[in-house]
Write a structure and sequence with these properties.
The structure is a homodimer of 237-residue chains.
Chain A: H1 8-20, H2 26-44, E1 52-57, H3 61-76, E2 79-83, H4 91-102, E3 107-108, H5 111-116, E4 120-124, H6 138-146, E5 152-155, E6 180-184, E7 197-201, H7 207-212, E8 226-228
Parallel strand pairs in A: 1-2, 1-4, 2-3, 4-5, 5-6, 6-7
Antiparallel strand pairs in A: 7-8
Chain lengths: 237, 237
């Protein structure tokens, strides 16, 4: 199964359509996006494989999706922690932080230590709006994730990858290949360079919006908010 | 399994705590509440039993939960329709309507006809803030639902029931016993008069809030947003 990709520019336009014309608030979209991320984590790394999940959040909406996912993971019985070195200014992000504090989810400032004691990483650093280069501290963070053996799920795109042309030729991220990727709404063009388990989430796309952007409406099973669409390098679904 | 009940007054105070101190927006709470409702519908009445679901929405937040549920049901492949005779003024409700229009979910004004052609009803008319009496057109609506053989899931409380003392002694709702009930956050005292399948939803309660109000934290299975807690009159879970 493969789904048509959407460019970064169209992805931004689609989100704007959902909010300006479709009646959606960012709170609602992020809630469902983050919920999808948490369900993908459950499928790739159920609690039986380890409950310590480190959610690495960037300053924008990708990081916000990570904050929502961390909240759901805490509700599922994981013991998530969050690394959020460059907090977004949007009041929504501050509220998501408050929600995590209410669940006693720790925010760490020592990334190396957090990475060494986790069983899974959620890379919610950058999504489709990433235009490079990686600013501090994220170059160093991506390098550490890249050279770690801890499995990673990236949200929307492997952070450091160009949304169109994929992994950087050199430097942090050049050899970054997360074990799993969840594309939100539609895959981004860089998925052609990706090998690993691939999910799609964000179950709010309508047929009219899909048609406008030439996308497929994913056929999610039952009540699930996530659909596995990828085949990895060994040919397993 | 039984869970401690929460009074209408405490339920209102709890929601206020979540929003004033817990960092939640109404958009987020309603999204997860409505998602829970949609998952309970799936369990009670999967699409194989009939895809036509009539969602009856009242003017307040209970109706808003119904609107969110209708959207998720449309995404699941049901063909929901909505009866919403007294629209809430809150701009959130208007946005939820827009979202449903985008999914081509019809809003009906002919309740009797809609009821006769549906396979399932979601009663999202009144929740914990209901203080009676049933104002028009809801007295007539409850009477029609009550005398119909179509199975019903009520959201938070069977509409017309007093939140503390249960079904009215006479008039519309006196014999109303929906096949299923989903309590949001915690059961309301009137559940003691209820016999049928009973679910709990609203997976956003924290231990500190539960402790403050003397509630239980439901042990939701896996990634599910709904938990069946009830035993019906025949002793089936």
């Amino acid at each position: 199964m493969s789904l048509k990709a959407i460019s970064a520019k169209d992805a931004a336009s689609l989100d704007k359509d959902l909010m300006d014309m479709g009646g959606w608030s960012l709170d609602q979209l992020m809630e469902l996006a983050g919920l999808s991320v948490s369900q993908a984590v459950w499928k790739v790394h159920p609690p039986s494989k380890g409950k310590n999940v480190l959610v690495v959040c960037g300053p924008g909406n990708n990081g916000g999706d990570g904050l929502v996912a961390a909240r759901h993971l805490a509700q599922y019985g994981y013991t998530p922690s969050v690394y959020y070195p460059k907090e977004g200014k949007n009041e929504l992000y501050q509220r998501l932080k408050t929600q995590l504090h209410s669940l006693s989810v720790p925010f760490t400032t020592d990334f190396a230590s957090a990475l060494s004691s986790t069983t899974f990483v959620v890379d919610a650093i950058f999504g489709f709006s990433f235009g490079g280069p990686l600013r501090a501290p994220f170059g160093e963070i991506v390098s550490q994730i890249e050279s770690s053996s801890v499995p990673v799920l990236s949200v929307d795109a492997p952070s450091s990858w160009d949304i169109q042309s994929g992994p950087p030729k050199e430097g942090p991220g050049a050899k970054f290949m997360p074990q799993a990727l969840i594309s939100l709404t539609a895959p981004k063009p860089c998925v052609q360079y990706y090998r690993g388990r691939h999910f799609i989430g964000g179950r709010f796309l309508t047929k009219s919006i899909a048609d406008k952007y030439g996308l497929d409406c994913p056929q999610y099973p039952g009540i699930e908010q996530v659909l596995e669409i990828g085949v990895d390098a060994e040919g397993r679904l």
